[in-house]
Amino acid sequence: MIPSDSEKCVYERNLAALDSLLRFGIKLGLEQTSELFSLCGAPLSLRYLHIAGTNGKGSVGAMLEAALRACGFRTGFYSSPHLVDLRERFRVNGRALSMADFNAAFGVVLAATEKMRQQGRCPTYFEFQTALAAVAFQRAGVDFTIWETGMGGRFDATSVVEPEAAIITGIALDHQQYLGDTLEKIAREKAGIIRPGKPVFTGTMPETAARVVAEQAAALEAPLFLPDAEVPETAEYGRDEQGIFQRFRHRGREIRLPLIGAMQRRNFQVVYPVLRELAGRYGFSLDRALDALARVRWPGRCQELGGWLLVDGGHNPDGAAALAEALREGYPGEQFTFIFAGFKDKDVKNNLRFLAPLAAEFLFTPLRDERPSYRGEELAALLPEDSHPAWRAVPDAAAAVELARATGRRTVAAGSLYLVGEILEAVAPAAALDLV
Question: Rounded to whole angstroms, how far apart are CA atoms 362 and 365?
Fold first, then answer.
């Protein structure tokens, strides 16, 4: 439905009001989030599937959402960050909230926020959004809510709810300034989403992190489900009208995924046990759920645009390694033009270490965001000493796309989801909004 001019006006006003809240930083503790949920009537029990992890949260969530929707359930999917439009963070049945539904939920949470302000308190940007998601999903009457943490787990605003299950996709070093400087500390934060007696599903992770998660599950008597060991290490690749896909055999049947690379097979190792357990509990067809994975979409993650351009976040070394792995599998023997950008608080040097062997050329560009990002010359200085790809400094993402198109090579944009958002905004904004 095309929004009216008045709905657009209200939406823009609401975005401005939201931007006035504290966008960055963390407030330890969940007392403020709990108060906000209570004041706006946001439900704590909405059949939440709570997902944490360093990488893979969104892909796992997208697979679960597509599978449950195909089995006749009405789904809510709360994720972050958004790429082009804030409404991407709040999807009902695979579609971003309409402006009218966003505005209605926003009004409920804003009224609760004003009550808190009168008492000298104010929710953060992320706390406000989290409450808005719960209100919107309650109003939409969803059956399952795919509920992604923002960054951590234990003190993340999303942890105020009572989930049906906890899902921890994997643990790697990222956001160390907030979560801790070791895998054990980060794992302890992520394991904070585990609830007493509720099942917890884990992905592949280093032994030190896996031990922390297992200990927390045991302490809370939460049944622990490890990643499915039957997923193969290799896959075949094909192409249809939707683009590239991988297929592999799993327990006697073919699994087809439009999300490419070994990382996505590792994500499937998490998804399969979740779907198997939910199918047994709620009586839906596991086969039907698995068939639906052939239609899963997750914007900004090895997403093809026009056949020649791929966009992928790849914002930490674990993600960059997974991207390089996917490119070698899906496009064997190719050298790429990379459009690359990175924030100064990220491990950009190691990101480039994984991508440089696949690069014919880098187009380095700064990011528009208010956080400090690297300039082209600074990024060039971070390239591995034993690699010698060509590079150019480019003023912005849109200019980089035009230069890349002229090279005639397949191009990959990576290094930051903010870069992906800038490129999608320039060339295909609608490609970020819906999953159907």
Answer: 9
Question: Model pTM?
Answer: 0.94
Decide which of 261, 295, 329 is a domain's last residue.
Answer: 295
Q: 219: how many CB neighbours lie within 10 A of its CB?
A: 11
250 lies in the same domain as 311: no
Q: What is the pLDDT of residue 179?
A: 52
Residue that is written with structure tokens 């440089």 in the block = 356
Nearest partner of 412 among 349, 295, 322, judged by Cα: 322
Asked if the structure places residue 114 within a domain, the reply is yes
Is the predicted pLDDT of residue 177 greater than 70, yes or no?
no
Q: With residue 183 as reference, give the H or E element that holds it.
A: helix 183-190
Residue whose structure tokens are 């990011």? 367
Whose CA is closest to 407, among 354, 344, 362, 365? Answer: 362
Question: Which among 204, 230, 226 is positioned nearest to 290, based on CA atoms?
Answer: 230
Give the Å distances, CA to CA, from 145 to 46, 75, 276, 278, 312.
7, 6, 17, 13, 25
Total domains in the chain come to 2
| Residues 272 and 335 both lie in one domain | no
SS3 307: coil
Beta-strand relationship, 359-364 and 390-393:
parallel
What letter represents residue 145's amino acid? T
Interacting residues of 193 by C-beta distance below 8 A, sequence separation 6+: 50, 52, 149, 153, 154, 156, 158, 159, 163, 166, 168
Alpha helix locations (H) across 28-175? Answer: 31-40, 57-70, 99-118, 125-140
CATH code at position 152 = 3.40.1190.10
Contact of 157 with 33, CB cutoff 8 Å: yes
- CATH number, domain containing residue 393: 3.90.190.20
The predicted-structure confidence for 67-93, as pLDDT tens digits, reads as follows 999 999 999 999 999 999 999 999 999
Answer for the pair 220, 244: CB distance below 8 angstroms, yes or no: no
Kindly tell me the sign of the dihedral angle through the C-alpha atoms of 234, 302, 126, 63.
negative
Beta-carbon neighbour count of residue 59 at 10 Å? 25
Domain assignment of residue 19, given as a range = 5-295
- Is 267 in the same domain as 399? no
Asked whether residue 435 is domain-assigned, the answer is no
Average pLDDT over residues 20-49: 84
